[in-house]
Fold this sequence. Notes:
Layout: E1 7-10, H1 14-25, E2 30-34, H2 40-45, H3 47-68, H4 80-105, E3 108-111, E4 114-118, E5 121-124, E6 127-130, E7 134-136, E8 140-142, H5 156-159, E9 168-172, H6 176-187, E10 191-195, H7 207-219, E11 223-225, E12 230-236, E13 239-244, E14 249-252, E15 254-257, E16 261-263, E17 296-298, H8 309-324, E18 338-340, E19 346-350, H9 353-357, E20 362-369, H10 372-375, E21 383-390, E22 396-402, H11 406-418, H12 423-427, E23 448-450
Parallel strand pairs: 1-2, 1-7, 2-3, 7-17, 9-10, 9-15, 10-11
Antiparallel strand pairs: 4-5, 5-6, 8-16, 12-13, 13-14, 18-19, 19-22, 20-21, 20-23, 21-22
Amino acid sequence: xxxxxxxxxxxxxxxxxxxxxxxxxxxxxxxxxxxxxxxxxxxxxxxxxxxxxxxxxxxxxxxxxxxxxxxxxxxxxxxxxxxxxxxxxxxxxxxxxxxxxxxxxxxxxxxxxxxxxxxxxxxxxxxxxxxxxxxxxxxxxxxxxxxxxxxxxxxxxxxxxxxxxxxxxxxxxxxxxxxxxxxxxxxxxxxxxxxxxxxxxxxxxxxxxxxxxxxxxxxxxxxxxxxxxxxxxxxxxxxxxxxxxxxxxxxxxxxxxxxxxxxxxxxxxxxxxxxxxxxxxxxxxxxxxxxxxxxxxxxxxxxxxxxxxxxxxxxxxxxxxxxxxxxxxxxxxxxxxxxxxxxxxxxxxxxxxxxxxxxxxxxxxxxxxxxxxxxxxxxxxxxxxxxxxxxxxxxxxxxxxxxxxxxxxxxxxxxxxxxxxxxxxxxxxxxxxxxxxxxxxxxxxxxxxxxxxxxxxxxxxxxxxx
Length: 466
């Protein structure tokens, strides 16, 4: 009988790879199983190729701005097939790096579909392996059954493999994926209609960001179709037709299903192994990522806690440090920054104004202005920044921004919030001029003060689709 592994990881995405390498660094004998490409959603069919497409779309605006800065004869035509070829090469390169990292770390990679036969036995496409621990890091998968006909649409997986752009596209959903691809594809010249059920896109974000994003998308030429339920999608001779609850019909040459993702738990043998799933199909875990079954843990999107790549990586490393070293680690999910790569970009960390109101008195500081770069060319594009501050302690509870470089700026400010920075700390910080980021340390007076908690404040949730 082959010696049991100390750890078998199911899923070689960012979280699984991070966990397996950290465990191996602590001396564990580790095997990681992957049915698809190494790197997972983020590297292969998510964050990385999406941002490469965002960069491509950004050149359209840069070419337009160049004329305002004195350049003449600047023009160009985007060729989707050329981008697709370059993207494929880059993803191959990154996958090669991930594979090398596993090899160099001493982690064994097994290609195939993994399924639990019992808490200590895993089948990988016919090969049975024994292990003391199983870590499930299988991520998420696009939802295709929100309403009839949705399976006819592309998901975020397929849209990143397009080699030709349609003239028009209907994007269904109002979450991260929906608004990002709506913005990107509009920048590449596609006529976009964005349909979602809520009043504004990006449910769960601060309302100041949501309303301004809706305005910015409309100014880019995107047709917004909010506030109406979605009934059915059909494909006809002239293209796709989406019927809505009010009887209206939206049409387009192509459709992107961006209604969300669900935990990728099907076919893993979880129920048979005694792993409890919640109502959404996610693996229920405690603060140490332990499932209900002895010897089985789970991290990342498959747990549906905070579905972001850096969170999965942190959870994976915390698991390995706790299990294979003398220094237990837990991930604090309460203060996690996030970004949305629309044009303009969005970034946020901490509490929204509505959520802060539930805790006590709140001071709100805002700055709304035209950035120097685009104002010079006559553009009406604006940047908006908000600080949500505890009205008693002056601790900064939330930082929110929509505008150029928002993710880069808020990433740095996330460190300040993690350290417990107060508004006074912001005030005594000398500005770097001329920058957009300096506005965060130049807000002197609150634009409004909430003295008492708002009993009727609208609760927020994780940003979702529709």
